[in-house]
Design a protein that fits this description.
By secondary structure, the protein is α/β, with parallel strands linked by helices. Helix content is 41%, strand content 13%.
């Protein structure tokens, strides 16, 4: 494999980076929070609006939440994910970009979604076969913004150094996880200023997926 310039592998976020999903993230987060609160794992003073579903889950895990409790919360999240993936479409330029990159770079999806939901959505949009690896939350020890999913992928392709990977995503949690994995991050559509406010320092921003070609050569 010759690679794409100096880049030999690309780590893609999925929702709202490659796929136009309609997952109701605020409702999913609230549903998970209420699940925990009803079971005494969280109180009403928790600043849920400042968190993502992933960080709500991580808060409970670090506070000693057991596997049964966490699995139940993930089942709540999965229902929102599956509903939001129904009829998912592609972001503009996604199909063309992946066709151009396939066989030139290792292409990986890293998503906080359940693996089954991710595969289902990628298959329904006709791009599943473009990827060398799909990393869902089941393959992670902790979801983004933790770097676990990226590190899992990088370990699978150990001949590619961290400097030869590029990560692309629309959310600050993608950027934070990438940075902790030692991977350069490009923000998709989200302004760099917004990323900086969350402590994330992208190497750049693209407004259209086909602009990624300027980064990978």
């Amino acid at each position: 494999m010759s690679g794409c310039g100096t880049i030999k592998g690309i780590l893609f976020d999925m929702d709202n980076t490659l796929l136009q999903s309609s997952i109701d993230y605020p409702s999913m987060k609230r549903g998970v929070y209420e699940y925990f609160r009803e079971r005494g794992a969280m109180d009403g003073d928790f600043p849920v609006e400042a968190h993502t579903t992933a960080t709500v889950l991580e808060h409970v895990r670090l506070a000693g939440g057991d596997a049964e409790l966490l699995d139940g919360a993930l089942e709540v999240a999965a229902q929102y994910e599956l509903a939001g993936m129904e009829g998912a479409g592609l972001e503009p330029g996604a199909r063309e970009l992946l066709k151009a990159l396939r066989g030139r770079c290792i292409l990986v999806i890293v998503t906080n979604n359940a693996y089954a939901a991710a595969v289902r959505a990628l298959k329904s949009t006709g791009i599943l076969d473009r990827f060398d690896l799909i990393v869902g939350r089941e393959q992670m020890t902790a979801m983004k913004p933790a770097p676990s999913g990226y590190l899992y992928a990088m370990e699978r392709f150990g001949l590619i150094s961290s400097g030869e990977w590029l990560s692309v995503g629309d959310a600050w949690i993608d950027g934070k996880a990438s940075a902790e994995a030692g991977v350069r991050f490009v923000s998709y559509r989200t302004p760099v200023a917004d990323m900086l406010q969350r402590g994330v320092k992208p190497v750049g921003r693209i407004g259209h997926l086909l602009e990624l070609a300027d980064w990978v050569g």
